[in-house]
Design goal:
- With about 375 residues, this protein is of the alpha+beta class.
- It contains 12 helices and 6 strands.
- The chain has a 6-stranded antiparallel β-sheet with strand order 1-2-3-4-5-6.
- Strand 4 (about 210-220) and strand 5 (about 225-235) form a beta hairpin.
- It starts with 13 loop residues before the first helix and ends with a helix.
Length: about 375
């Protein structure tokens, strides 16, 4: 007896290939449509105003528009996922194809599997886009625009640079407690030198120092600060002066953190996660806990945002399986309603996070968790 081996079964069934092919065109249409809307509202109108009122050259405006495009394309990915899944599953439901498939014993969970795969793929793509392309392109767009309008701003905080240095002090009970060592303040930074400085130094036992100077510059060879035209006041802990020293140039051992704080980009939307984390470490050293909290929330938001694609994809597929009249117009209207509701909740959570009513993790993830919970409930109901 001869054995005839059956051909190997593909991991991707005919049904999966069919639904995936149906999802592709609406997704591309959604990216184009939502990107066009977002770029018009977010960039085109402002660039036209700058061309007519400020004389921005057309070629520069075109370059800035191209550099801003990745930002809006990334924002359109979740919306396009929602629109495509909603359109495709609504059409399958309207044409009674879903009824036929369910009559053949295929569950709703199996039917929406292609939508889940698409959503996960778009989530990964969104994360990669936001990390590798969007921050650098947005930063370059800002630089190009400022140079063209001759409004170039220094890429540093030019005023009121504050840095607080702490050290861990071991307590008699074995615990450690942070104690303030120094407060560094510079009125201005011109890109090379700090100007009008005051340093309060509490690091030495039995004497405090107050250092004032006209300017200070980081010495890269000695890895220390050169202070110029200043005075050092030595003060006893009881408040009486012990000594006054005037100097023309004095090397003072301080960390270079104030320079890093002044010279770094400050807009977290122009940084990827690794850059925001580096900036967060600097801000923590400055003692600005409010700003540090906002950066922690920004990091969590950058991680959470791609998961919106999964929520929207599941929402579109689940709602699409329910019989509905209205065709693509109704699908588009439902998509707008879901998108509006989600982003409204995101804005509210972001505001609560900034006010420190919510923790950074709660503020960043609550919209996604609420959305996923609502979609899961709808999915269970649709599967009954």
């Amino acid at each position: 007896m001869s054995l005839v081996s059956s051909p190997p079964r593909s991991l991707i069934s005919v049904l999966d290939r069919y639904i995936a092919s149906q999802l592709t065109s609406p997704f591309i249409f959604g990216v184009a449509a939502f990107s066009s809307i977002l770029v018009s509202v977010g960039a085109v109108f402002e660039l036209i105003r700058q061309m007519t009122e400020l004389g921005l050259p057309l070629d520069v405006a075109g370059r800035v528009l191209l550099l801003r495009m990745p930002e809006f394309v990334a924002l359109s990915f979740p919306m396009a996922t929602l629109l495509s899944t909603l359109i495709v599953y609504s059409r399958l439901s309207t044409d009674s194809e879903l009824i036929a498939l369910r009559s053949a014993g295929i569950s709703v969970y199996r039917l929406i599997a292609p939508a889940i795969v698409l959503s996960i793929f778009v989530s990964v793509m969104t994360f990669a886009f936001n990390e590798a392309i969007v921050p650098a392109a947005k930063f370059q767009a800002g630089v190009t625009l400022e140079q063209a309008l001759k409004q170039e701003k220094p890429k540093f905080d030019e005023k009121n640079i504050v840095f607080q240095q702490y050290r861990d002090v071991k307590q008699p009970n074995g615990t450690t407690q942070q104690t303030l060592d120094r407060i560094f303040y510079a009125q201005r930074f011109d890109g090379t030198r700090m100007k009008e400085l005051t340093v309060l130094d509490f690091s030495q036992e039995g004497v405090n120092q107050i250092i004032t100077a006209n300017s200070a510059q980081w010495n890269y060879e000695a890895q220390t600060w050169d202070f110029f035209d200043g005075t050092i006041y030595l003060v006893n802990p009881n408040g009486s002066y012990r000594n006054i020293l005037k100097f023309e140039q004095q090397q003072i051992q301080l960390p270079r953190t104030p320079l890093d704080l002044a010279a770094n980009k400050t807009d977290s939307s122009e940084m990827n996660i690794a850059e925001v984390q580096q900036y967060l470490q600097l801000v923590k050293q400055s003692g600005d806990e409010k700003r540090a909290n906002q950066l922690r929330m920004r990091i969590q938001q950058k991680i959470a945002f791609p998961f919106v694609c999964l929520v929207f994809g599941l929402a579109g597929a689940t709602l699409g399986t329910r019989p509905r009249r209205g065709g693509k117009g109704a699908s588009f209207a439902i998509s707008i309603l879901i998108i509006f509701t989600y982003y409204l909740l995101s804005f509210v959570c972001d505001a609560f996070g900034r006010l420190e009513i919510f923790t950074p993790i709660l503020a960043a993830w609550l919209p996604t968790v609420v959305g996923m919970s609502a979609v899961s409930w709808l999915l269970v109901r649709a599967a009954r």
